[in-house]
């Protein structure tokens, strides 16, 4: 897999919206709802770094999660964004997610069963976690604990935090294109 390339952060907000959506898709996952929510990116004040951009997006997503508590349209948008991540262990996972999920070897049947249980427990959500080379038994234990907790509000927050952790990791590994 080739290393993704990002434009210099100082140029990102000045680039055309389609380029901004490509960058957002590299950092997060392709999501029309995320693109609609965030683009065009504000030009002022400029983002100082990709971590600063991701922190700003985290704040926006957490605010959306709060509004989603009382607003069906906001809930729908949030669920579309959170559902853009592929299921762990899903066949046909592409791009960066495929490499990131490479450590998930082992009981794939149990992973699929827990994915289904999770989505039954939390309609509209998909289990999102920063894998970071963690072994499958650790991920399965986390899934079970989150299902047992049964708190959909907390799950939305955890999914946002995981998406941002993944984006930070992706940004740290990406090449920055020359000006």
UniProtKB/TrEMBL annotation:
<dbReference type="GO" id="GO:0006144">
    <property type="term" value="P:purine nucleobase metabolic process"/>
</dbReference>
<dbReference type="Pfam" id="PF09349">
    <property type="entry name" value="OHCU_decarbox"/>
</dbReference>
<keyword id="KW-0659">Purine metabolism</keyword>
<feature type="compositionally biased region" description="Polar residues">
    <location>
        <begin position="94"/>
        <end position="105"/>
    </location>
</feature>
<dbReference type="InterPro" id="IPR036778">
    <property type="entry name" value="OHCU_decarboxylase_sf"/>
</dbReference>
<feature type="domain" description="Oxo-4-hydroxy-4-carboxy-5-ureidoimidazoline decarboxylase">
    <location>
        <begin position="15"/>
        <end position="171"/>
    </location>
</feature>
<protein>
    <recommendedName>
        <fullName>Oxo-4-hydroxy-4-carboxy-5-ureidoimidazoline decarboxylase domain-containing protein</fullName>
    </recommendedName>
</protein>
<feature type="region of interest" description="Disordered">
    <location>
        <begin position="86"/>
        <end position="105"/>
    </location>
</feature>
<dbReference type="InterPro" id="IPR018020">
    <property type="entry name" value="OHCU_decarboxylase"/>
</dbReference>
């Amino acid at each position: 897999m080739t290393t993704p390339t990002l434009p210099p952060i100082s140029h990102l907000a000045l680039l055309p919206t389609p380029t901004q959506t490509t960058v957002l898709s590299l950092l997060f996952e392709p999501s029309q709802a995320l693109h609609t929510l965030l683009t065009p990116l504000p030009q002022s004040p400029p983002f100082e770094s990709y971590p600063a951009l991701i922190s700003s997006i985290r704040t926006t997503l957490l605010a959306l999660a709060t509004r989603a508590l009382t607003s069906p349209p906001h809930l729908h948008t949030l669920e579309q964004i959170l559902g853009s991540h592929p299921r762990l262990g899903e066949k046909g996972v592409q791009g960066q997610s495929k490499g990131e999920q490479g450590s998930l070897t082992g009981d794939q049947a149990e992973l699929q069963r827990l994915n289904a249980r999770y989505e039954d427990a939390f309609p509209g959500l998909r289990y999102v976690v920063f894998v970071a080379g963690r072994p499958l038994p650790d991920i399965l234990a986390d899934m079970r604990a989150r299902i047992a907790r049964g708190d959909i509000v907390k799950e939305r927050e955890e999914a946002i935090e995981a998406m941002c952790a993944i984006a930070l990791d992706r940004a740290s590994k990406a090449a920055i294109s020359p000006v």
